[in-house]
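Please decode residue identities from the backbone states below.
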């Protein structure tokens, strides 16, 4: 069995708390990992002004995978302006490591059996390097009454096509073989047209995959009222960001929602992190649910080729319902124990 080198970026708020539990559970699978923790996030920024030094970025490129908790200040923080860490650290990693697929699976754990939304089992493939996230835009006459701010959406045929093709390949492997494009083609007539044409063309290569299209606003209704209609969803960066918080909420809660930022070409490490953020409102209280980070670690093991260890984690998460009142680390201990017993 290989020994994997994993870089850990706990980050801010509950990030370090949930990453610690994820690594505890990885250790319980018996897969051997060497971990190195990186001090990145708000504390380092406030202390040194650094967000992601070039030397650290170069080092991170040498790992087999990266696990990240969450980065970002408390809302309204005066010390760390909004966007500094999100853009300078997380998005920089997504762009520089070419993590063009953000794969976010949503499965209602049976432990949340009484969910008002019914059982959910779908995957959102979110384009992860373009759209409004690309950083196009700027200010004119900033600070004056005539101020202009623009924030463009960058959509390349290359970027859209590789993401759409990944989504078709995934849908083709799943039982239902169904793929829904979510966009806003009725208003975003340039980017939406590129997405729709690319989707239609790539779909010719996958006759076994049935397809659908939803405008993003309607997708919000369907995701709440009848989420079981979805199997695989592919969408752009910003719609994917918003839809996946909603998807988390309808599939047992954001504390379960995991994600894999993938470089499918494997030209460098991929990055695994929960969908949720730093949750400063509950940091240090023991109330953070580590399940999302633990499931993300399962996605990491799966991508590294450790299928059996990953499946063990997924099946424990599917069956285990923490008793109310357990702390973050107690939940991590309980999951690690079940994973270890399953070996
Ligand atoms: P958030 O996801 O941190 O929190 C939203 C709500 O969900 C809060 O009520 C929080 O308590 C709850 N929550 C989140 N994770 C939870 C968990 N594991 N268990 C239980 N409850 C949980 O979103 P926000 O408040 O909008 O953002 C806070 C900060 O995190 C911001 O700086 C933001 O930029 C950043 N952020 C980072 C990431 C990331 O690093 N991937 C993702 C989202 C937000
Ligand atoms: C997410 C987060 C990030 C995003 C932020 C922190 C940059 O919300 O991973 O969903 O918007 O992609
Ligand atoms: Mn988000």
């Amino acid at each position: 069995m290989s020994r994997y080198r994993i870089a850990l970026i706990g980050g801010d708020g509950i990030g370090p708390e949930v990453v610690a539990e994820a690594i505890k559970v990885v250790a319980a699978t018996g897969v051997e990992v060497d971990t190195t923790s990186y001090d990145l996030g708000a504390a380092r920024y406030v202390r040194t002004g650094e967000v992601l030094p070039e030397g650290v970025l170069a080092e991170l490129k040498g790992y087999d995978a990266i696990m990240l908790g969450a980065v970002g200040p408390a809302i309204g923080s005066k010390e760390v302006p909004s966007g500094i860490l999100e853009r300078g650290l997380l998005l920089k990693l997504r762009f520089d490591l070419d993590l063009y697929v953000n794969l976010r699976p949503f499965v209602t754990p049976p432990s949340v059996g009484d969910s008002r939304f019914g059982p959910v089992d779908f995957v959102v493939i979110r384009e992860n390097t373009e759209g409004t996230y690309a950083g196009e835009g700027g200010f004119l006459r900033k600070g004056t009454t005539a101020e202009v701010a623009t924030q463009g959406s960058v959509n390349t045929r290359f970027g859209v096509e590789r993401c759409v093709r990944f989504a078709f390949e995934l849908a083709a492997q799943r039982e239902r073989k169904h793929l829904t494009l979510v966009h806003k083609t009725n208003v975003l007539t340039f980017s939406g047209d590129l997405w729709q044409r690319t989707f239609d063309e790539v779909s010719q290569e996958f006759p076994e995959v049935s397809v659908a299209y939803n405008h993003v606003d309607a997708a919000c209704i369907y995701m709440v009222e009848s989420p079981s209609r979805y199997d695989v969803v592919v969408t752009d960066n910003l719609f994917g960001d918003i839809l996946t918080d909603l998807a988390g909420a309808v599939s047992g809660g954001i504390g379960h929602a995991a994600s894999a930022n993938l470089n499918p070409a494997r030209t460098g490490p991929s990055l695994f992190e929960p969908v949720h953020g730093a949750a400063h409102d509950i940091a240090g209280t023991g109330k953070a649910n580590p399940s999302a980070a633990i499931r993300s670690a399962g996605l990491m093991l799966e991508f590294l080729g450790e299928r059996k260890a990953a499946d063990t984690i997924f099946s424990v998460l599917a069956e285990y319902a923490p008793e109310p009142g357990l702390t973050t680390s107690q939940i991590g201990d309980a999951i690690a124990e079940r994973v270890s017993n399953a070996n």
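Observation: The pocket of manganese (II) ion (ligand 3) is lined by residues 241, 245 (CB under 6 Å).
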